[in-house]
Amino acid sequence: MNPFSYVTAADTPSAVALAAEGATYLAGGTNLVDLMRQGVETPERLVDISRLPLAGIEDLPSGGLRIGALARNTRVAADPRVRARYPVLAQAIVNGASPQIRNRATVGGNLLQRTRCPYFYDRHSACNKRRPGAGCDALGGFNRMHAVLGASESCLAVHPSDMCVALAALDAVVNIAGRDPVPLVDLHRLPGETPHVETVLRPGELVTSIDLPPARHGHGVYLKVRDRASYAFALVSVAALVHMEAGRADTVRVALGGVAPKPWRAYEAERLLIGTTLDDADIDRAARAALADARPREHNAFKIELARRLIRRALKGARP
């Protein structure tokens, strides 16, 4: 591990000032410390923000919920308000990692975690995300775990978060110190020709909390397919939310994980389901539309049919 300096932030403004000078934020450390051990990230200075007062979970006047960026994943999943009003979020968090990791990991860190692409982690492989302009070994390599939606010729990596898939379906908004809030679906960028620029955050900006709007949907469903029953990253995951009015769908949200460089909202599938009775034919049509633009690579074409099947299961489970 390369040498680095360490400082504890006294408050949010001082943390932001240090980060603007080139320091890297450290919260739970479940991703950053791993990357430092692998030599993928080599920050010269860490600013520990874990003691900042950003771990609260509080009701909003609108009826929504604000979750602090430093709230531990275990606490969020166990919060009675989350379990009662946003159970799809609790399901996603519990499916995302072991209890030990959830006890340490923070909401903000989960939002901003780096991809688990093996070529990104292997310093001897070409990776545009790790070293811009180096190329992408996943293009001609073993790309079974990689993206079928939203990728580019510069990067095929997928976003690893389960929690973010649920947040995308819930229309969550990300609060950032010193600037206007950003919808969760707009926080992460598609790779294009600059896969190393992963979010819309500017250098030094600090996520402070996430706002969930008032719950106006059914119980919601989060489903995840992975290679083993113990904790593993998603081959495909789906968060589905449905609200019916007079027997017809008036709110539908479908978000996918494991298939794209960011949490992926299936907007066309949602549009096709509005006003329908959500019968099996409606759901089948929407599931096909959700993957209509998929571009599989040599080893991951199976994800397309897998995602369609999982969307069908999730929507059938979410309908009243």
TrEMBL record:
InterPro entries: CO_DH_flav_C (IPR005107), CO_DH_flav_C_dom_sf (IPR036683), Diverse_Substr_Oxidored (IPR051312), FAD-bd_PCMH (IPR016166), FAD-bd_PCMH-like_sf (IPR036318), FAD-bd_PCMH_sub1 (IPR016167), FAD-bd_PCMH_sub2 (IPR016169), Mopterin_DH_FAD-bd (IPR002346). It comes from Nonomuraea purpurea. Pfam families: CO_deh_flav_C, FAD_binding_5. Residues 1-217 form the FAD-binding PCMH-type domain. Coiled coil: none annotated. SUPFAM superfamilies: CO dehydrogenase flavoprotein C-terminal domain-like, FAD-binding/transporter-associated domain-like. The keyword DNA-binding does not apply. PANTHER family: OXIDOREDUCTASE, XANTHINE DEHYDROGENASE SUBUNIT C-RELATED. Transmembrane segments: none annotated. Keywords: Oxidoreductase. This is FAD binding domain-containing protein.
